[in-house]
Every structure is written in C-alpha cells, then in structure tokens.
Design brief:
Number of strands: 0
Number of helices: 5
Radius of gyration: 19 Å
Helix content: over 70%
Structural class: mainly alpha
Length: about 150
Amino acid sequence: MKLLNFKLFKENIILIFLCSLLLSFTLFFFGPLEIFLSASTEFWFSISDILFIIIISTLLCFIISMAIQFIVSFLGNRLLKICSSFLTALGIGFYIQGNWTFINYGKMDGTPINWNNYSGWAVANTIIWILIFAVVFLLNFRHTKEL
C-alpha cells in the first residue's frame, strides 16, 4: 500500500512541484520584493539586508508545501488533488490580490486607516477569492476522471 502511494506522489510530482513553486514564489519572493522595490525610499534598510531572509523563507515555504503534499499523497489521490488545488488557489489569489487589485491606502506612515472606506473592496476581494477557488477546484477535478 505504501509503495502504491509513493507512486501516486511520483505520478503527480509536476503538479505538486508547480503549485508549491507558485505559492512560495508569490508569497515569499515576489510579494516582498514588489513591496520593497515599489517604495524603497520609505524603508530604512536596503535590499541586501532582506534578500537572504526572502530567499530562505521562499525555500522553506517551498519545502514545507512539498512535504505537506507528500504526506497527503499517502491519504489518497482525492485528498492530494484537494490539497494541490487549495495551495494553487492560494498562490493565484495572493498574486491577483497583490498585483491586480490596487487599493490606495495612502502613505504607510503609521497613520490609522479608516477601514470603513474600504468595505466595497472587502466584498470585491471576497468574490474574487471565491471565484479563484471555484475555478481552480473545477479545473483540477474536471481533468481527473478517475475520482
């Protein structure tokens, strides 16, 4: 039984690798660099001060998400597809929210933000996230006929 499950992991290694890469790259590499590079004058540190932390956190996220999927692969193909879909949807959701939904909160100088002004964005973001999860899960399970 265990050999069969390891075979399942090997058969899905490309899917597992890509969704782990998407999530770790978006969340821990691209996101922090985009924030820093778009407003580098507002920070008191340089890129060289944080680059090591960004690289290490990206690698750790990648390894942890690969390990989670490896463990889940022993529980069956259906759970592996659910886990992979969830991690992929998170990666896509964070990418879209960080790069396509531009909300101007003003200068980030510690001044309190009136969150009541952004309730429309909360609704829009919720709809976007639900759509992302729905599309990713539908596409992933539609292509898997043996489930």
